[in-house]
Amino acid sequence: MKRFHLTHLFLGLSLSAMCLTGCGSSDTLKTPPASENSTEDFTTETAVTDSTEFPITISHAFGETIIESKPTNIVTVGWENQDTPLALGVVPTGTSAANYGLVTEDNIHPWTAEAYEALGEKNPVVFDDIDGLDFEAISDANPDVILAAYSGMTEEEYTVLSEIAPVVAYPDAPWQTYWRDQTIINATGMGMRAEGEAKVAEIEAVIAEKVSEYPDLAGTKTAFFWISPDDFSTFYVYLPADPRAAYLTDLGLEFPDSILDMANSTSDFSITLSRENTDQLSDVEMMVVYGDQTLLDALLADELMSQIPAVKNGAVVLVDSTTALAGACTPSILSIPYTIDEYLSLLNEAHGKVK
Description:
- By secondary structure, this protein is of the alpha/beta class.
- The protein has helices spanning 6-18, 83-87, 110-118, 135-140, 155-162, 179-189, 193-211, 243-250, 257-263, 293-301, 309-313, 324-328, 335-351; strands at residues 56-60, 63-67, 74-76, 95-96, 126-127, 145-147, 167-168, 222-228, 231-238, 270-274, 286-290, 316-319.
- The strands form 4 sheets. A 5-stranded mixed sheet has the order 10-9-8-11-12, sandwiched between helices. The chain has a 3-stranded parallel sheet with strand order 3-6-7. Strands 1-2 form a two-stranded antiparallel ribbon.
- A hairpin with a 2-residue loop joins β8 (222-228) and β9.
- Mean pLDDT is 88; it is low at 1-51.
């Protein structure tokens, strides 16, 4: 197994940075959230050649990556990118630690752990990279390709990783890759695009079947928030560009007009809202928020926060940060079937309080 020497890397870092092509254009693979939970709404634009033939070229936010031959050793960094190879029957030689929600002793989410076990891997290689990428460990995993379709890597990190192996980065912006795109982009980097598309269609069918059991949820104006229980002065609203917010539309819900208006004012995946501006959320019928009953009680007791219709009526889905669902709210190809029943049940319970 090759050993990665950081000293050698950084001597050539400035030169390799000069060799990068320009940022990706609108030709990159991009899939919007499905509407009305129909696979017919899934369309793809791509600059990727037929994944059954090599070399393949993948356009992304940092330029283009060329993969000369079908990779054998798959390494993943970022959020749940390892779920794509696992769903396609391939064990990654290394992957990033999970950093939110319930995790196993190996620092991965339970659905990921089950997939490893099903493929006969009892000791997955997991990078301790929550506070920064571990380039040595990534190199020691001997990757032929590094999958990072949903991640927040910087251009400098991309350049460093590219010295180790070809990197499949996010198509447009950090932390703004929907689960469909994440799966298909990563699968393409493995030379398994068709298999990735088939897996997406399979999970879309699961979603459609499950959502059909909750017809009352359809069209409910719902938004996803992060609110600190210790400070209501400002809080975060996740916008349609954020995968956890976009996933709500898969489940039959709709964005309130207020959220769509906010999204038109920024290219970010979230926006910070002041407590004094909660009147902007007067059309939020239901909300999802990380927290517990203590948070909801505090919101109800607050003069301004309690005026949000979802809060006033108690139509709030509380997602405990220590649960599997907390991680699965940002969905992956494996987390969706693992938690969708629980998520829909909680949404339906909250919907019963919508007025």
